[in-house]
Amino acid sequence: MTAITHETVTHYAKLANLHFDESETALLAEQLGTILTHVEKIAELDLDDVPATSNVLARQPLFREDEVRPSLGSEKALANAPDTESHHFLVPKVINVK
Amino acid sequence: MVCDLNVSSNTLMEQLRSGALTSEALVKESLAAIQTRDGEVGAFLSVQEEEALAQARDIDRRRAAGEAVGALAGLPVAVKDNINIEGRKTTCASKILEQFVAPYDATAIERLKQADGVLIGKTNMDEFAMGSSSEFSALGQTRNPHNLTRVPGGSSGGSTAAVAANMVPFALGSSTGGSIRQPAAFCGVVGLKPTYGRVSRYGLVAYGSSLDQIGPVAADVAGVARLYDVIAGPCHRDATSAQVEATPSLPELTQAISGLRIGLPKEFLGDAVQPEIQVALNRLVDLFRAAGATIVDVSLPHTEYAISAYYLIATAEAGSNLARFDGVRYGYRTAEDGNLRDMYVRSRSEGFGMEVKRRILLGTYCLSSGYYEGYYLQAQKVRTKIIEDFQKAFDQVDVLLAPTTPTTAFEAGAKLNDPMAMYLADIFTVTANLAGIPALSLPAGRDQAGLPIGLQMLGPHFSENRLLRAAYQAEQLLK
User: Fold this and answer.
1) Does the structural domain B9-252 have CATH classification 3.90.1300.10?
2) Statement: residue B3 has pLDDT above 70
3) B295-308 as b/e, with b when 16 or more CB fall inside 10 Å?
4) How far apart are CA B419 and CA B357, in angstroms?
5) Which alpha helices (H) appear in B129-220, and where do they start and end?
6) Three-state DSSP class for B428?
7) Orientation angle between helical segments B354-367 and A22-39, nearest 10 degrees
8) Were both Cys, which of A26, A33, B155, B218 would link to B179 (CB 3.0–4.6 Å)?
């Protein structure tokens, strides 16, 4: 059984830009432990000499000329943004923040 | 005339071509069915009544004037709500995208429009396609039309329920680990997950990018073939799109394959399978054998590691893909004041549901330094072995036949608080996604509770046409 501590959940939540309250953290620690215990089954296979899959199709990647093509345009690209100002996405201040 | 949505899409197409039926009448029938049944089924998140009727009238006018019309001309199609239709919401059944309006059409939608399919509405799903019961939707509850206490399966549960309840003849779903076949089995309809790269992912909201595929759902194999022919083929906007032309499957669909060799993978049989599903499988095997097919026992020895590899790879990719939802460019932003990082964390924590957060956390964990080799890299090596298993099996047989799911549709709420139990609902479907091969589920009778049983057929990469022919043959044998 892989034991996942509250601290582990809190650490990875921070890396993933998520926050959990106390009861969620406790629940997730337990559930992640259960899930990891199950998925760790793959460790029993000796696959040292096996290449990892990077693409399921044994084909050449698709290349194209690096040329300018029509794209969304700023109006459409900004249309779903929560906050904008003069063709820019607006976010909370990030410099000189006290 | 009064039309009947409970007939094959072939019949509807013939009636539309002959003028016995108009698209407007058909769309009205579809809208009426939604009006009548969707209160209890909950398949749709949004219905575009006016636009659908306008599109239908335009198709009727063009047909009457002798103008060219597309391959789906006048037939209503429902679309899973993680596929973009320009100017309409793509919510992914998530609070974080509840107000998101798609700025462009997915390639699959562009092709549906060119084929004159009538886009009638968007269907419910597990949030960001993460789930096997559609219960993880933040925006609505979908129930199985055959029994409202049961789940429709997931994550494309809205699409399969809409077809099963005769609201639409066709729907698009998407599959990352079984999200088309599993709900198709639970709802008693046909669903195809095409070869990875066969249908463009452009305009499909990404979950597990190396696994995701859009696929067709219909009441019968011919309907699935018809919709598949429209959406399949290379696309220059998706770098993972396979540059292999797709030849239409429908013209040759009814030609039985002589000397068909069918493999039965032993790892998909046994005590874990509900007895009635095993009986249904045996029955189809007997029918195929009597029809001249060769039945071969085969082995896919790494199947028992598939769920583990799948949930490691899928969550790792999900953790990366869903980093884009941060309250800046689109989607929900928290109303709370704070610095940039607070804004990210609050927007994501308030906007995502618990299952999505659980998978992001798991994916972040297994990609992190010190765990990457043991989890993600090892899982990608297991994937190589799973691909090899299939290659060896397809050296001996044309298609594989197996149960789609270990059980028929389970009770709503039964697995909601047990993530691992929910993940195991995909135990028979994830291998096809990991290997990128096409796989189709078709109905094969009912269990004692009256719930549909689904059986799946799997084929090598790009063998959709042969797979569909074999499935059509199975469908005829089961009649």
Assistant:
1) yes
2) no
3) eeebebebbebbbb
4) 12
5) 157-164, 181-187
6) coil
7) 60
8) B155
- At B4 the pLDDT is 65
Distance (Å, whole) CA B63 – CA B75: 13
C-beta pairs of B272-276 under 8 Å, 24+ apart in sequence:
B272/B406, B272/B427, B273/B403, B273/B406, B274/B406, B274/B407, B274/B408, B274/B447, B276/B408, B276/B445, B276/B447, B276/B448, B276/B453
Searching chain A, which residue's CA lies closest to the CA of residue B197?
A57
Residue B351 has pLDDT above 90, yes or no: yes
pLDDT tops 50 at residue B1: no
State the average pLDDT for chain A.
92
Alpha carbon distance B22, B63 (integer Å): 10
- Is A32–B362 a contact, with Cβ atoms under 8 angstroms apart? yes
The answer to whether domain B9-252 and domain B261-307+374-478 are alike in fold is yes
Q: Is the pTM of this model over 0.95?
A: yes
On whether the CB atoms of residues B109 and B117 are closer than 8 A, the answer is: no
Q: If you count them, how many residues does chain A have?
A: 98
Task: Give chain B's mean pLDDT.
Answer: 96
Query: Do residues B85 and B106 touch, judged by C-beta distance below 8 A?
Result: yes
Which residues, in sequence order, are CB contacts of B115 under 8 Å at separation 6+? Answer: B70, B71, B72, B73, B230
Half-sphere exposure of B378 (CA within 13 A, CB side): 19
Catalytic amino acids of B? 80, 155, 179
Q: Which residue on chain B is closest to A38 by alpha carbon?
A: B308
pLDDT at res. B380: 98
A16 token code pair: 């993933």
Coil, helix or strand for B82? coil
Stretch B303-317: mean pLDDT: 97
pLDDT in tens, B188-246: 999 999 999 999 999 999 999 999 999 999 999 999 999 999 999 999 999 999 989 99
With 90 as the cut, is the pLDDT of residue A60 above it?
no
Residues of chain B with C-beta less than 8 angstroms from the C-beta of A8? 365
Do the beta carbons of residue B197 and residue B232 sit within 8 Å? Answer: no
Distance CA B172, CA B153 (A): 15
Q: B317 to chain A, minimum CA–CA distance in Å? A: 13
Which of A18, A40, A61 lies nearest to residue B360, judging by beta carbons? A18
Distance CA B131, CA B190 (A): 19
Locate the domains of chain B by residue range: 9-252, 261-307+374-478
**Beta carbons of A52 and B461 less than 8 Å apart:** no
Q: In the prediction, which pLDDT does B2 show?
A: 45
Q: How far is CA A67 from the centre of its chain?
A: 30
For A91, B208, B350, the CA distances from B333, given in Å and listed in that order, are 10, 24, 9
- Choose among A20, A43, A51: nearest Cβ to B378: A43
Sequence-distant (≥ 6) Cβ neighbours of residue B465 within 8 angstroms: B247, B249, B252
CATH class of domain segment(s) B261-307+374-478: alpha beta
